[in-house]
From TrEMBL:
Organism expressing this protein natively: Elaeis guineensis var. tenera
Domain DUF1995: 62-303
Leader sequence segment: none
Pfam families: DUF1995
This protein's name: Protein LOW PSII ACCUMULATION 3, chloroplastic
Top-level taxon of origin: Eukaryota
InterPro entries: DUF1995, LPA3
Amino acid sequence: MPISSSSIPRVPLPAISSLCNQNRHFGGKRRDPKKMATSIHLVVCSLSRDRSNPVELDVRFPADYSQLLEQAKEATELALKDKKQLLEVEFPTSGLESVPGDGEGGIEMTESMQLIRGFCDRLIVPEKATRTRVFFPEANEVDFARQSVFGGTSLRLDYLTKPSLFEDFGFISKVKMADRVKPEDEIFLVAYPYFNVNEMLVVEELYKEAVVNTDRKLIIFNGELDRIRSGYYPPFFYPKLAALAKTFLPKLETVYYVHNFKGRNGGTLFRSYPGPWTVLRKIGGRYICLHQQEEMPSLKEVALNILPSA
């Protein structure tokens, strides 16, 4: 049963600069920057599962969230120059090596909010701030953002849904997207629209009503779209949401992406636009490229075929 994000306890917000500048990893410890590797290595990477034709490749995996946000910003700028309209940015927020579920829901949302602010500060020039609308999942999140991470910003803050009297039972009030958009809006950034199953349906509506046949751009930031791609939501119970895998997601350009796999055959699926999709493994403090391809592989393929055969 969907749970309203307003019922999740919040944690105190650390300074944004501290979050972005520290190299966070398991155990909550902090690495000495002087000992930190540059994470830019010249490695051998195969172009296919048949590793008979290796090539040299610069693998630029970020050493911390500051580097990650800078890479995500550069990848987004390149995609916007290439006239991409529907973009995805996805990476873990509980540590660069974390996986979904490592962090508690409310904490992950707070961390995402901080990272979104850092991303906007890098991507959006001051004169464009009032033409950029950031959509949070619901109205309560907007209030929280204004009182904390986004206090004093010129960015336009908005919401996809608003609570109803029955929100504890999974019901929310739908917001008509055409009524939320202003003529001067140029960029929409949608923040983590995954906690309620209705949120991504509203994002699709926003795209259809306010982006298609315009010059506007829509960026989905940490939307956990792999849930839809992988069939996590059974089509029988969630037909509209499951349909997005065929009708909406193929229009997306995933411009920046990090997904980690744990276990003996662990690794990382990584992409920074316009580069290829690469499967990496951290060995001895450096990331080695095991595989690369032009199209996004499924998480199942990476976990069951690519990583075990490396």
